[in-house]
Amino acid sequence: MPQATSVFVGGGTPSHVPAEWLARVLGAIPRASEAEVTVECNPEDVDAALLDTYLGAGVNRVSLGVQSMVPSTLASLGRVHDPEAVHRAVGALGESGLPSFNLDLIYGAAGESLDDWCHTLGEALALGPSHVSAYALTIEAGTALFDQPERHPDDDDQADKYVLAHEALTAAGLAWYEISNWARPGHECRQNQVYWRQGDYRGIGCAAHSHQRGRRWWNIRRVERYIDAIEAGRSPTAGAEELDEDTRRLEALQLDLRTPLGVPAAALPEDPALERLLVRSAGRARLTVEGRLLANEVSIRLR
Asked: What's this model's pTM, rounded to 2 decimal places?
């Protein structure tokens, strides 16, 4: 049976699950000896006992859902933890000997000022993370925020905050390696790199996606229906698609564009409107910081 080179437990609140249960699940997954095993955690859930169980189960990376270090911004995001919980969690991570941890930040919440965001960045960096993810708040249909347009993020504000994040994280020694991710050498998230390189992966759980050699499929979204299918011995797959060669080629370019690798220079036209968004050298075209802010617009020009 193939062995996983990385395992990522996330997409929700896995740290709410009793650590012993999660350890049993991890124990059922065949893994390579050097596999990266990540669990997403809420700061308020992390303590020495939880981490001791995780380490015993082979977990070697934790992604901590910090989001902000400003109480009013955390409240705007609907988070129940406070900055002190983050400090306690990171302290427990350090004492546990866990080799790597990520701080997950979100910018653009209603009421968050530039000073608030700078405070969050400074506090986060003072905790000494080996990896930081900084995501712009996005509004999804069907969420409470979707029906509150007065709380929707401002594009210009988010652009300013992205630039501030890049400058602060880079100055602190974390290198940008994907539009929303920075890491110290050797601490890049292996699971993310599988996705960005069109590798094969298997998703387990409701709404999870999988990919194998150009075929993508996804599971039932609703928890109850997913459990019913499993208990009845039915496939939980909700849909699938086969990617043709041209689609895979274009997707590979779109993914590479989001990283420092960039794309072959010939994949983008010589257009003056693109030049401030790209750096062309050694036969490659790479996004500038401004270009990252407009990556989707650049992507539609790929050929």
From this structure: 0.93
